[in-house]
Amino acid sequence: MPAPTILLIGTGRAAFHLGHALRRASVHVVGVVGRDAARTASLASRLGTVPIAPGADLPKADLVLLAVRDDAIGEVSERLPLSSAVVVHTSGAQPLDGVARHPQHGVLWPVQTLSEGDPMDLGQVPLVIDANNEQARTVIQGIAQRISARVLELAHEQRQRVHLAAVLASNFPVFLVREAQRLLDEQGLPTDLLAPLWSATAANVLSKGPDEALTGPARRGDDKTVQRHLDLLR
């Protein structure tokens, strides 16, 4: 079977990390489409492909990957010509509706925080997929399995729950660490005092589970200490 081909639309973090993962998996990226000419050219160069401006003629591909923000999925999808390509978005929170005008469509969502920096190894990162029919499913699954050893097919209702859980496990703790650092900063204290605690807590949660990893006054039932904390927060 010939190697699949991908047209990548977007130049943000998802496009960056998925683009590099596709290249490592020997999936040919036929082009990168982006509004910002400099960012598009930079990402295309790193992926060994060509930059494409919005509105230009698009090369043929087996799959068109919309690595754009959630609110832009429908708009970008509407601008794409109908073809035999499978059109997929990369959002865990959005249904298939945004790409449903295309005969073959679906979802390819990495359950991972995607930050600036070096390309991330997605080899063990769960990739959640969905598709509107068997033909699209075969294409999406084949590409996902080239990228990661952990591929799950989940319908929208389940994807929404996974996305919610991911936000609670990732974004919410990050916000709390920022607030904790703010409290230290207000007292003129170095915010890196929390770094060993944060690292050890994360490691314990993964190795022991959250119930066993919980420590401090809440675990011990030290109500007076908890009340003092609440008073300080006020």
Descriptive notes:
The protein has an eight-stranded mixed beta sheet with strand order 3-2-1-4-5-6-7-8, sandwiched between helices. The chain is elongated and about 65 Å long. The chain has ten helices and eight strands. The chain is of the alpha/beta class.
The structure class reads alpha/beta
Helix proportion range? 40-55%
Number of beta-strand segments? 8
- Count helical runs: 10
What string gives the helices and strands in order? EHEHEEHEEEHEHHHHHH
User: Which strands sit side by side, in order, in the main sheet?
Assistant: 3-2-1-4-5-6-7-8
Q: Low-confidence parts, pLDDT < 50 over ≥5 residues?
A: none
| Biggest sheet details | 8 strands, mixed
Taking Cα atoms only, what radius of gyration do you get, to the nearest Å? 21 Å
Average pLDDT figure: 94
Termini separation comes to: 64 Å
Strand content: 15-25%
Principal-axis shape equals: elongated
Give the topology.
Elements: E1 5-9, H1 13-24, E2 28-33, H2 37-46, E3 51-52, E4 63-66, H3 73-79, E5 86-89, E6 104-110, E7 127-131, H4 134-147, E8 151-153, H5 156-169, H6 171-186, H7 195-208, H8 210-213, H9 217-220, H10 223-233
Parallel strand pairs: 1-2, 1-4, 2-3, 4-5, 5-6, 7-8
Antiparallel strand pairs: 6-7
